[in-house]
From TrEMBL:
Enzyme Commission number(s): 2.7.1.-
Species of the source: Exiguobacterium aestuarii
Name this polypeptide is given: Diacylglycerol/lipid kinase family protein
A family per Pfam: DAGK_cat
Residue ranges of domain DAGKc in the record: 1-128
Coiled coil: none
Length: 290
């Protein structure tokens, strides 16, 4: 077998860590190629050129993984290598969702087990994601969080950033459609459309969540201010709320119409628009899991 390692030194990947990972897995492969990212876009480019490899090992955080996924989805399905993750970022949300060890050599040992799992991929217009699409409070929080606070406090840092956003948060009007069917119309404080089971290191606690059921998890809420804080605390920041102010449903695809352009967060990538088409690409990638 042939493997490509994509390593992001800026995510905290040291030469020692890289050496330990290579030492753990090198006996599996006839050829092992290492490529290190230097700037944004490198992992995307490396993934686009990975069609001849059996495995791709990603050493980095959620941002590096997001680039890799977008690169792999440009390849034909049969040409996409199976992906192994060595978590090296701050949140590592998708690695947590796959129940991967955070310790590098332990995560590398998972690759040696060669246990594979199909995973759905979210398509957002022409972009791809593994974890979520966020609008409103979720997008504002991830965009405004202080990097030092994120590094030091993890999920607590996200919660503090969320509290700060309440001061400026305003409801916005959305329409959610599935084809010709109107699923919801009204004001919300946030919209979450996801496939992963973690958001800012915190479990989403959605009972129906699955990586390979061909369905998106859609959550939105009209709650704001103190009611939102109370509910977040009660559920430890989870999204699976029982209040009538929270709505949760599943759908294979959904169109989002906004009354005015909003900042959109797609696995940490931000842009502004007033319309989104979001769908699931069923079992589009294969990952190495415990």
């Amino acid at each position: 077998m042939r493997a490509l390692i994509i390593s992001n030194p800026k995510s905290g990947t040291s030469e020692t860590m890289l050496g330990e990972v290579i030492g753990t897995i090198e006996s599996l492969y006839e050829e092992l190629i290492i490529k290190k990212t230097q700037e944004i876009g490198d992992a995307l480019r490396f993934a686009k050129e990975s069609g001849t490899f059996d495995h791709m090992i990603v050493i980095g955080g959620d941002g590096t993984l997001n680039e890799v996924v977008n690169g792999l989805m440009t390849l034909e399905r049969e040409d996409r290598p199976t992906v192994g993750i060595i978590p090296a970022g701050t949140c590592n949300d998708f690695a947590r969702a796959l129940e991967l060890p955070i310790q590098p050599t332990q995560a590398a040992s998972v690759i040696k087990s060669n246990h594979e799992q199909h995973v759905d991929v979210i398509q957002v217009d022409e972009m791809y994601a593994l974890n979520f699409v966020g609008v409103g409070l979720i997008a504002d929080t991830s965009r405004q969080i202080d990097p030092d606070e994120k590094e030091a406090l993890g999920s607590i840092g996200y919660f503090l950033a969320t509290i700060r956003q309440f001061r400026e948060a305003d409801p916005f009007e959305i329409r959610l459609r599935r084809g010709d069917e109107l699923l919801y119309e009204g004001d919300v404080s946030f919209l979450y459309v996801g496939n992963g089971s973690y958001l800012g290191t915190v479990p989403t606690k959605l009972e129906t969540q699955s990586f390979s059921d061909g369905l998106l998890e859609v959550v939105h809420s009209s709650s704001i201010g103190f009611p939102m804080i109370r509910q977040l605390l009660a559920q430890q920041l989870g999204l699976d709320q029982k209040s009538t102010e929270w709505n949760h449903f599943q759908a294979p695809h959904v169109e989002v119409e906004l009354n005015e352009p909003q900042i959109i967060d797609v696995d940490g990538e931000h842009f502004e628009t007033d319309h989104l088409t979001i769908r699931i690409r069923e079992q589009a990638l294969m990952f190495l899991t415990p």
